[in-house]
Amino acid sequence: MRWLVGWSSTAAGAAIGSAGATGYDGETLHPVGSQLLWGDPDPLWAVGDWRPDEVRVVNSDAQNRIAVLGTCAASDEELRRSLFTARGGALRHLTTWPGSYTAVVQVGRRITVCGDLAGARPVFHTPWAGGTAYATAALPLADLVEANLDFAHLAALLAAPEVPAALRDTTPYDGVRRIAPGHALVLRAGAREIVGYEPVASLAVAAPPADPDRAVDAVRDALVEAVRARLSAPRHVPDLDPGPVPGMGPAERRAARGMPVPGIGADLSGGPASGTLALLAAGLPGRPGTLLGHGTGAGERLLAVTFNDLAVSGREAEVERAGTLAANPRLHHVVVTGGEETLPFADLDGPLTDEPGPSLVTAARHRARFAAGSADHFTGHGARQVLDAHPARLADLLMDRKRRHLVRPVAALARADGSVMVPARVYGAARRLARTPYRAGLELLAERLMRRRFDDPKGAVDASLAGLAWARPGPAARWLTGEALAEVSVLLQGGADRSAGGSGQRPGEFRARAVLARSAADLRVLEQAAEIRSQRLHAPFLDNQVVRACRALPEALRVRPGARSAVLRAVLEGAGVTDLPPGWGAPSHASSAAATRAGLRVAADSLVDLFATPLLAEAGLVEARVVRKALRDAAAGEPLPLDGLADLVSLELWLGRLLARRGTCWTGTPARARAVPAGIPPRRGALGAGAAGAAGPAGLSG
Length: 702
Hints:
Elements: E1 3-8, E2 21-22, E3 28-31, E4 34-38, E5 44-47, E6 55-61, E7 64-72, H1 76-87, E8 99-107, E9 110-114, E10 124-128, E11 131-135, H2 138-145, H3 151-159, H4 164-167, E12 177-178, E13 183-188, E14 191-196, H5 212-231, H6 250-256, E15 261-267, H7 272-283, E16 302-309, H8 316-325, E17 331-338, H9 363-370, E18 374-378, H10 383-387, H11 393-399, H12 407-417, H13 422-435, H14 438-450, H15 459-467, H16 482-498, H17 507-529, E19 536-538, H18 544-551, H19 555-558, H20 563-574, H21 589-602, H22 604-610, H23 615-618, H24 624-635, H25 642-660, E20 666-667, H26 687-691
Parallel strand pairs: 15-16, 15-18, 16-17, 18-19
Antiparallel strand pairs: 1-5, 1-11, 2-3, 3-20, 4-5, 6-7, 7-8, 8-9, 9-13, 10-11, 10-12, 13-14
Helix pairs in contact: 3-16, 5-18, 5-20, 7-20, 11-13, 11-17, 12-13, 14-16, 21-24, 22-24
């Protein structure tokens, strides 16, 4: 893991020592394994295995400086000029450079930390020592303030994971807060303020019509610049191979020792997102492949990695398309095979991540692919969320009086269902959503949770109809206790009261942003859980400029069937790539669901054992016997929501790893200064009181 952490104190003399602060016994605090970027009175550290080119600090003078951590294409001169603009309070320009990074600006005693638009690079903060501590990870702040678990947040994470009103700005750690995507944290001598840096569209006036061709060109330009930012960064060569192993070739030795191949590579699943990035990276000028003298000696070829699941069928066409794409002489193709040991739920060992996420149950599956990848590895994560149309966007079209653009998506649903009633049902649901206020949508969800009314969409039409709402229960909500659902319902009612004026967005846009934030947060968990030493995963679709370009796509273009593959095909054609295999861009959800069900069937016994005495039950969130029965039924083939079971299993895994954790993120602190220092007491019937702060400290022993 890598993060930055710092604080803003109330007075210039509050911090004592060289870039530190006094702990309980007068000792100096500083993060373990850190490098100091600047010192008192408002110090900032970079923690973890940052590469030298990933950490840049540019000074205008002693009181004005900027730190950029990550991949950023801005030159030092551009960073220096940005300080003068930021001095006047303008922030958006700090987020417009190609790449994925976190910018921290110090102007006098004012500290500004910018989050990203997707939520893949979040910013957290907590009150501390009379001021405010901030970080790009929640666990270091939880250690700093000895935070206990926030059980209301954990309940919301299971009951309504895509509803911002339920999650609010909380984290799994009580008192540690998250900055919403598209916002920045501004600290002035310890006092904090959260400001948005993106313009907000008006609900009263429809957005001006956008030219589809120009919008697609903007997506192409943003993606090309995002890929070029990675290619132009200094190459990183992992630690040298210490020597031969009998019976192993160089690639096998690297994989066994957890070392990636030097150079740049990409996923090549056969889908449109990964294929677009691989072809763009291979076609841009420069040296996208491995370094001469290392690895295969392929020089300028890009390493393309395809995962072939031997345990589950259904992806043969995708693997064949990947092989056709890899025939490009600029690509060096590697196929990684996986059996039952790489199925979801099969291998649940892994490190403690900053937060829980459903990708914990698939981390071993992804790690097998990443281990064969390069030191810098492109992934297509996020493309579906930024390019696809959420079903609720049909209501946006009605609000903008663009009814004729509903014809294509509704006709596609009718063909898939085979019913003549589909157009009327979809149009009626979209019309109801367009006329439903945001507050009413939250109240409806709160009532559904209280009455335990959960739907089971069967097919594309039912899923689209279920998505035509301001908010809906999460797939794991059906297995929560009544107390947990009641607590989330109270949170939603409070959110409805606070948002009497509405969400400020159209329902489709609102739902799409919430889904993107959820996906980006889970990708962050995956990066930590499946991390390969000396490797960097790059998700250009989640870069700020790519997200902005995708949001500017016209709704009429976005809702067309096959819009994502059509946009990416146009992107490649604009970049000079036209020879794509037949069937490129075809969806492949069925094979993923089959792999999940197969993994659940193989790992059923170990999962039941995991929930023999679950920590979730101690926290009052679930009944152990209910979850065990659900796991057995799903393994037997019952049509239960598998993603809900993944949510439950991943949260239980995360709590167990947190319980087994020792140590702290800080040095110079007493042994008690770490997150969740107490154990979980029996909390049956006490969830509401504990979450509201009326109960005593609760959490997991560190």
